[in-house]
Design brief:
Elements lengths: L6 E5 L3 H13 L3 E5 L2 H10 L4 E5 L7 H11 L5 E5 L4 H10 L3 E4 L6 H17 L9 E8 L6 H14 L5 H23 L13 H10 L10 E8 L2 E7 L25 H9 L2 E4 L5 E7 L4
Parallel strand pairs: 1-2, 1-3, 3-4, 4-5
Antiparallel strand pairs: 6-7, 7-8, 8-10, 9-10
Length: 299
């Protein structure tokens, strides 16, 4: 259930789009606050910080990319989701590098609420858990998870805290790492163990994707498979490996989500985000294991 105090600030200069964003957010139970441009949004954040910011790219006064940079610099704990238009994926990639936590194509806004929910789940779980020791020089954790999406956010939050405690990334950078981990875990569960194709999420109704996943969670052999996670942290680097028990895939066959034919389709979006946020990404020959390596960034 959504906390009635959860506030989402939307920076959008189009009246039509503003109405659509407000409707989606309020229907999902969030408090929506609207700003006509990036400058107005930044002033509102200074006066009353929201839980999340959603921004368009093309706005007067201060555009979305400038807003992402400003929020990342001044309010690194506030995540920003970029709402991109057709053909703006290259700019979206730049925004991700500059501090955005995720992005959603405007013509596929059905992904906005699930993306927002997952981002907030990580944030809230992170705040609720106790801090890890700041004196540790090495830490290793291993998990074997069932195909239960409710366990993803607490696990991501724990690894995010490890990244912060070992100073591999600052809080803003750690949030982007968390979103990459979330994508990798979701891929392992849905596409790996449950073998549900992202093509079922295309179009106006994505219910078939989640319906099939729900059925397979109770069917053999899908319900017997698990996701194995290993994270090792030192003061210099982090190595996180996620392996599912599905048939695997060839990463070379995943379409480029920035290609014109795939701009509004979900295929490849998760891997694209992972590569945008992670220093090194490796796959095993079977295609059912991904290793993400982070190097400590200089202050």
């Amino acid at each position: 259930m959504v906390d009635s105090q959860t506030t989402v600030l939307v920076a959008e200069d189009s009246r039509t789009q503003s109405v659509l964003f407000r409707s989606l957010l309020e229907k999902a139970g969030y408090r929506a606050v609207m700003a006509a441009n990036g400058r107005e949004a930044l002033d509102m954040i200074k006066n009353m910080p929201p839980d999340v910011v959603i921004t368009d790219l093309n706005m007067p006064e201060m555009n979305g990319l400038e807003l992402v940079e400003a929020v990342h610099a001044q309010f690194p704990a506030i995540p920003v989701i970029l709402a991109t238009g057709v053909g703006s994926e290259e700019i979206a990639a730049e925004a991700l590098r500059k501090g955005a936590a995720s992005y959603v194509p405007k013509r596929n806004l059905q992904d906005l609420i699930p993306t927002l929910q997952r981002l907030l789940a990580v944030t809230q779980a992170d705040r609720a858990c106790a801090q890890l020791s700041a004196c540790a020089t090495l830490s290793e954790v291993q998990f074997s998870l069932p195909n239960d999406g409710s366990l993803v956010a607490p696990l991501v939050a724990q690894i995010k805290r490890m990244v912060e405690r070992f100073k591999i990334r600052d809080s803003g950078g750690a949030m982007r790492i968390a979103m990459a981990l979330d994508e990798a875990l979701q891929n392992a569960i849905f596409h790996g163990n449950l073998e549900v194709s992202s093509e079922l999420r295309e179009g106006d109704n994505a219910s078939a994707f989640y319906a099939l996943a729900g059925e397979r969670r109770h069917q053999t052999p899908f319900n017997e498979r698990r996701v194995h996670v290993r994270a090792v942290m030192t003061r210099d680097m982090a190595e996180i490996t996620i392996r599912d028990e599905g048939p695997g895939f060839d990463p070379r066959n995943i379409p480029d989500p920035t290609a014109p034919a795939y701009l509004d389709r979900p295929c490849g979006r998760g891997l694209w985000l992972i590569h945008a946020f992670i220093d090194e990404v490796r796959h095993n020959p079977a295609g059912n294991e991904i290793t993400m390596i982070l190097h400590r960034q200089s202050p």
